[in-house]
Amino acid sequence: MTTNTGTLIGYKRVSTNAQDAQLQADALSDAGCTRVFEDKASGKNADRAGLVAALDYMREGDTLCVWKLDRLGRSTKDVLTIAEDLHARGISLRILTGTLAGSYSPKGEGKFFFTMMVAFAELERDMIVERTRAGLDAAKAQGRTGGRPTVMDADKLVAAKARRAKGESVTAIAKALGVSRATLYRTLSDSE
């Protein structure tokens, strides 16, 4: 275990803009991170400006802190490359939760255990993707599709067209049908 003699720097990542990184932010703050860098990109994405900025910002004696190992990267090779680079620069790596919670030691048993856990994390992600695809394919074969249910069914569309033909405003029609104006505009334009 490497002793932190410098600054504790946090890195948080979510895969999409729709996800919230607040849980990670709270954990990094509680851990004592003085600065936190963030990305909203897949871990497989090589272009992670927040991670690059964090790595550029850090100096010998600092510690890079991540909430969970998979936030650092999704591929075994990528995570190991980052960890080895940090060690070579005299920067520690601290993982707050998960199987590898603690600090990374790039020597002997620590390196072996870290490598195995990174590989297992990648395998777990691949299995989740595979199960999700299989589930979606099975649902599709049964005639079910995912996503939000449509709010504009055929009856509402006929009513909307009739009201629009009579000169009624889109706002009034949307309110009467219980849908948003944007939904009504989109549905009307798609049906023309």
TrEMBL record:
GO terms for biological process: DNA integration. Keywords: DNA integration, DNA recombination, DNA-binding. It comes from the Bacteria. Gene3D superfamilies: Homeodomain-like (1.10.10.60), Resolvase, N-terminal catalytic domain (3.40.50.1390). The keyword Coiled coil does not apply. SMART domains: Resolvase (SM00857). The keyword Disulfide bond does not apply. Residues 7-143 form the Resolvase/invertase-type recombinase catalytic domain. It holds the Pfam family Resolvase. CDD domains: HTH_Hin_like, SR_ResInv. One of its GO terms (molecular function) is DNA strand exchange activity. Belongs to the site-specific recombinase resolvase family. PANTHER family: DNA-INVERTASE FROM LAMBDOID PROPHAGE, SERINE RECOMBINASE PINE-RELATED. This is Recombinase family protein.
